[in-house]
Design a protein that fits this description.
heterodimer; A: 271 residues; mainly alpha; MetI-like fold; B: 268 residues; alpha/beta; Rossmann fold; 2 domains; four-stranded antiparallel β-sheet
Chain lengths: 271, 268
């Protein structure tokens, strides 16, 4: 109750004295934990190595400096694989996540008990596991290669697309829904005419955004053998071919820039 | 039919554990009759018309549209009878990102299958009907515009055309003018009553604006706290009746504002 009476006049403060005291106490605790953690980390660090870090970093940079331009000839195929892993993985995820989102959204879920909970569970499960871990598991099951990468990307993206899409569906305006139901339309037609047009911009935005993320994620999947440019990266690191490593970095940077430009264009086009 | 196009018997609605939103409402509507439903906010006007097409589930009571008992239907049967009831909304309730034509054709959804609707392959007769109605609401040039590019008055005319696409036997109109300026409000009310007259189409119009109700409808029903407290000719709406519907108020000021908006040529 921030309104108090002082000398017969009502005075207003944002917080009562008690909440002010509590706020200070919380700040004190945060600082105390910070100091304690610093000590903990400090005791377990070999400071000689840290002191050496700028020299080591500089050394590594120097070795990378002339990127191995000739090496690019061998990189186009793995780069193409990477883009395909990201694109096909995203498409597969869209196909699975879209119906899932309609089941998960409160306003479009079928009146079958338990179905919505199941859809939400699938979404959460997919979101809680990183694509790299999915890839690790899939490489063991399916063997190394592009297919494992595609499925790993798809499994991770289902949750992402599903969650953002079902939130967009839940936020859609209920008025056209009511109007379309009033014409005698079937439930499926209602979704098609009243919900789909409303979530179209969100759908396009979410899909290209996830594709953009997947391009970046696909570049590292090779580390566990799931195909793409990551395989080359790991091979180059293993033989300490730093010129090749920096060449791969440059290529990844260019690809990510291109994908970001493309997804910005798509998002601007759909309004 | 001597029994009337629409008959409501002892209709009640209670939301959860709240007070009754509708309390034992009975009324009947003859062919071609356009009635105004007036009453204060929260009197149950919206609930009443939404009970008729079952957008709101009545708690008790029965409703007939012609020979069909609406309150006995479910699923497909309910959807088939909804096709015969057109509805017009306060905030237009158009699908903003669809074109005017698509919005009109959505009035035919009850008559086409899922895939025809998805691919926008409506029968030629529906499309001709849409063009015809667009001319009648003077939106012929707007066929391909997206609904969100239209003005308020234009959107409401699309809403009217969409409802008439259904070739309804009854029109439910929920506060058609509440989002419009005074001049457009008049034009919309004139259009609705004219189109109903041409088709001998009965309509229930929820309306806040008593002067508009008086001017465009011959019969008025007054609702107060879910009960019908007046059902009679618009001409008999005097201060005593209005006080009974809305509560104590100096109704002369109402009359003054009425003449004021009467001469107002602003808007648009």
């Amino acid at each position: 109750m921030p309104v108090v009476t002082r000398q017969g006049q009502p005075a207003w403060r944002l917080r009562t004295p008690r909440t002010v005291l509590l706020a200070w106490l919380v700040w004190f605790l945060i600082v105390a934990v910070l100091v304690w953690s610093w000590q903990f980390v400090s005791e377990r660090t070999i400071w000689a190595f840290v002191a050496d870090a700028p020299r080591q970093g500089g050394d590594l940079m120097a070795r990378m400096v002339p990127p191995d331009w000739a090496y690019t000839a061998m990189l186009w195929q793995p780069l193409w694989d990477t883009i395909n892993i990201a694109t096909l993985g995203t498409l597969l995820a869209i196909v699975i996540a879209t119906p899932l989102a309609f089941v998960a959204a409160r306003n479009t879920t079928p009146a079958l008990p338990g179905l919505r909970a199941l859809a939400l569970l699938i979404i959460v499960a997919s979101r809680s596991i990183n694509a790299l871990i999915w890839a690790l598991l899939l490489v063991m099951i399916l063997g190394p290669g592009v297919l494992s990468g595609i499925i790993a990307i798809a499994l991770r993206s289902i949750g992402f697309i599903g969650k953002l899409l079902y939130e967009a569906i839940e936020e859609s305006d209920a008025k056209p829904v009511e109007a379309i139901i009033a014409t005698g339309a079937s439930p499926a037609q209602m979704r098609l005419y009243a919900i789909v047009p409303q979530v179209m911009p969100a759908f396009a935005g979410i899909s290209v955004y996830r594709w953009d993320i997947n391009i970046r994620e696909a570049t590292i999947l090779g580390l566990v053998g799931a195909g793409g440019i990551g395989l080359e990266l790991m091979a180059s690191v293993n033989v300490l071919a730093w010129g090749r490593v920096s060449m791969i970095f440059l290529l990844i940077l260019a690809t990510v820039l291109a994908s970001e430009w493309l997804s910005a264009r798509v998002r601007a086009a759909v309004t | 039919m001597s029994l009337g196009v629409l008959r409501i018997e002892a209709l009640s609605k209670r939301y959860g554990r709240d007070a009754l939103a509708l309390d034992d409402v009975s009324l009947s509507l003859d062919g071609g009759e356009v009635i105004a439903l007036i009453g204060p906010s929260g009197a149950g006007k919206s609930t009443l018309i939404r009970c008729i097409n079952r957008l709101v589930e009545p708690s008790s009571g029965r409703i007939w549209l012609g020979d069909t008992e609406l309150t006995a239907l479910d699923g497909r049967g309910l959807r088939q009878v909804r096709r015969r009831i057109g509805m017009i909304f306060q905030e237009f309730a158009l699908v903003e990102r669809l074109t005017v034509m698509e919005n009109l054709l959505s009035g035919r959804l009850g008559y086409v299958g899922f895939w025809r609707a998805a691919l926008r392959r409506f029968p030629q007769a529906d499309i001709e009907r849409a063009f015809d109605l667009l001319e009648q609401v003077e939106l012929g040039a707007m066929v391909d515009r997206r609904a969100d590019a239209l003005s308020g008055g234009q959107r409401q005319r699309v809403g009217i055309a969409r409802a008439l696409m259904q070739t309804p036997d009854l029109l439910l109109v929920d506060e058609p003018t509440a989002s419009l300026d005074p001049r457009t409000s008049r034009q919309i009310m004139r259009l609705i009553t004219r189109l109903c007259g041409e088709r001998n189409l009965p309509a229930i119009i929820n309306i806040h604006d008593v002067p508009l109700a008086r001017r465009y409808c011959r019969r008025v029903i007054g609702l107060r706290q879910g009960r019908i407290v007046y059902d009679g000719p618009a001409d008999d709406l005097d201060d005593r009746v209005l006080t009974n519907i809305y509560g104590e108020e100096d109704w002369d000021t109402q009359a003054a504002t009425e003449t004021e908006t009467e001469t107002d040529e602003g808007g648009v």
